[in-house]
């Protein structure tokens, strides 16, 4: 949406990363023990979605899948301050919906403010009983919100 504003009619973002505040740092999941990740990502690390994503401690396939996912997201996103979103976000002209898990322990909700200050007309919808992955913890609610927003 920042690179090609004419191609984006609407923008729905779920707990996005992209800004940095020294006073409210994003958790560096790349340095975490993979076994600690479910508690950072999910409000309830024992929920079904967390079990599907992370498997059990004795599941080697799940451990490899998690390590691969961490590497991919880390390569794409980290370090956040060097990715240049601050320089480009002013180009976003599309209406934006930010969906945020109220109990996100990975990316503090204060970052929702950063997006709403920088994208004209952006609005935030907090999702109760959800952490950093509200689309997995409250899928029906998130799907409804996104659908309503995109069809408006």
Would you give an account of this structure?
The protein is an alpha/beta fold. It has a single domain, classed as Rossmann fold. It contains 7 helices and 3 strands, in the order βααααβαβαα. It has a 3-stranded parallel β-sheet, sandwiched between helices. The longest helix is centred in the middle third of the chain and has 18 residues. It is globular, with a radius of gyration of 16 Å. The protein starts with 10 loop residues before the first strand and ends with a helix. 22% of the residues are buried. The mean pLDDT is 88.
Number of helices: 7
Distance between the termini: 18 Å
CATH T-level topology: Rossmann fold
Radius of gyration: 16 Å
CATH architecture field: 3-Layer(aba) Sandwich
- Let me know the number of strands: 3
Level-1 CATH class name: Alpha Beta
């Amino acid at each position: 949406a920042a690179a090609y504003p004419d191609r984006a009619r609407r923008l729905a973002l779920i707990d996005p990363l992209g800004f940095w505040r020294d006073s409210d740092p994003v958790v560096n999941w790349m340095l975490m023990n993979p076994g600690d990740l479910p508690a950072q990502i999910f409000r309830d690390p024992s929920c079904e979605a967390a079990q599907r994503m992370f498997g059990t401690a004795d599941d080697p396939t799940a451990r490899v899948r998690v390590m691969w996912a961490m590497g991919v997201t880390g390569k794409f996103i980290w370090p956040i301050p060097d990715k240049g979103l601050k320089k480009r976000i002013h180009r976003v002209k599309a209406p934006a919906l930010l969906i945020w898990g109220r109990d996100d322990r990975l990316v503090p909700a204060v970052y929702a403010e950063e997006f709403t200050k920088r994208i004209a007309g952006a609005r935030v919808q907090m999702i109760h009983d959800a952490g950093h992955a509200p689309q997995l913890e409250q899928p029906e609610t998130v799907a409804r919100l996104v659908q309503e927003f995109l069809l408006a």
